Amino acid sequence: MSIADYERSERIQFDPDGYAQETLALRAGQHRSLEGEHSDPIYPTSSYVFSSAREAAARFGGDEAGNIYSRFTNPTVQFFEERIAAMEGGERAVATASGMAAILSTCLSLLQQGDHVVCSRSVFGSTVSLFDKYLSRTGISVSYVDPTDLESWRSGIRAETKMLFLETPSNPLAELTDVSALSEIAHEHGALLVVDNCFCTPILQQPLQQGADIVIHSATKYLDGQGRCVGGVVVGANKEMEEVYGFIRTGGACLSPFNAWVFLKGLETLKLRMDAHCRNALAMAQWLEQQPGIERVFYAGLESHPQHALASRQQKAFGGVLSFEVKGDQAAAWRFIDATRMISITGNLGDVKTTITHPSTTTHGRMSPEARAEAGIRDNLIRLSVGIEDLDDLKKDLQRGLAAI
Ligand SMILES: *Cc1c(COP(=O)(O)O)cnc(C)c1O
User: Fold this and answer.
1) What are the tens digits of pLDDT across the range 225-242?
2) N or C: which terminus of the chain has fewer CB atoms within 10 Å of its end residue's CB?
């Protein structure tokens, strides 16, 4: 069989059309080499060899498709891009060195001096720093709104608004935004709606199908799922992704092939892991809500959550992250955290191992006390990213925390 025949063979080139998401997670972006390997191959190479000087010139000139240099394209990275694009239902994905590189490249490639962004006030801390400290220097301005209130979004929009940016559900208080309603508002004003889908993953929510224009992921979290690598990805229509790709190719924040391979392996088990995360988190949230030492639990799967109906409509399940306030002050929250023995004290989330975090002194510690108060992040708040350990073992560990308040 010639290489051309081989490349046309359906057995090695998976056509994603018509397959369910569970199948896409395993098989989209599959391109076997002539070795016939079953697992996805890693191509750890910085550059590629041309068969002639003429071919090199044709590739550099853009007259012929093909690899040149791994900052531009790398097969393993492209497999990951194809798989995540299929799972989100987007035309194209561009992989990046981190979740923050995904946000940076989206903004710098699609916005310019004088443009304005309306952003949820409940987004990842580094996203706020990126907007306020660095994007502001380029003449791109950002204002912040209440993510749960469509009127607040509407009143934040100006003539020069080009982008609306949000996470839903938010971190750590699980505030939701109605993506389909907000997409109409964005499009009435000619603005792009960008959703950081890190908490839900395409398994629980596909924002592009609900009207969003661009989806961003920190692949570091659930897509990897086992806390091994830092990476990110942007998904959307070809038109916008061509701009994002151009920026990454030139700006250099590309994903390494090894990390792309880890994410490919992560995607294969994403559905199973998300099911287990969601099941454990719902059970933990319901259990915590009944404990006398707990003031309030924030989890959209609870009927007490003010946006439970929206969450049930917009998401397939409620995710693996919850937060709760202990009855007491910051010292009580720290005593709770320090009394646990198994659960990991770390700022990361989305890992198969349960992690516990004190947001106001770590992940959200750089916010001013006023901004924290406005966002509702109190000193007695604890965030739990619920893993897939045995539920009774998790409860036993949290009981140690409860006893220490
Ligand atoms: C972690 C995170 C990011 C940043 O991703 P990195 O991979 O750490 O750069 C962005 N958004 C959300 C919601 C996150 O949790």
Assistant:
1) 999 999 999 999 999 999
2) N
